[in-house]
Amino acid sequence: MLGRLGIVGAVLAIWLTPVGTLDEAVASSKDVASTHAYVAAGYAALHATVTTWPAVEANIGKLNRKFHAECPEVGAGSPQSKEEQKLATETAGALWATGYDTDANIVRKFVKAVSPLRWSNPKINRAARRYLKGLQEMVALQVPDLWADVRTWSAGGFGAVTPATEQYARHVEAIEVKEIPRNLLRPFVQPADKTLVAKAEALALRFEELEIGRGMSDWDMLLETLALSQ
Questions:
Q1: Domain coordinates of the chain in residue numbers?
Q2: Tens of pLDDT along 47-71?
Q3: Is 76 exposed, middle or buried (0-12, 13-18, 19+ CB in 10 A)?
Q4: In terms of CB atoms within 10 Å, which of 116, 155, 170, 185 comes out highest?
Q5: Measured distance CA(75)–CA(84) in Å, rounded
């Protein structure tokens, strides 16, 4: 559920496979240069994201305290249902919005660095555009009015969720943050980048620990404050 809480960790997937020998007959200098720039931008973004994780956690904690002060257990007594799942999705969206807002400058720097890059393979260019579009949509995501939405749902006898919740949940689920497929870029990763690859691998493992461990914990925390189920 919370796979999109992190910022750009997925970009490092291409580095965590053995660096092969470049086929010069297939690759152009543009492919090599663009891939190097993409790798470097991804490493820088991931390093910054891991570094600023405490700030993300602090802002999520602030959001939870706000809910706890304004609407503790507003969803008490709610049944597990498809409608409640939409509110759980809205809650996840609140986490993503908070995390991406905290790291918005990191994302924008990454987008700025990658936007002008071009490869000879149109599939890579299309994948890069989709990836950047997804990141920009996540940065633009707003924290929803969860208190009002859950309160209205509760007051209505836990029937249908509000139109705002329905729309927000659909919007969140439609956002795709998918990196450029590793098999498309792997031929263009140079042996000279091996040191960067090793550093990236260590960061990627740390990022995964934070995203899975803390992300799920934060989601559970907000759901518990609102008295909603996963």
A1: 9-226
A2: 999 999 999 999 999 999 999 998 8
A3: exposed
A4: 185
A5: 9
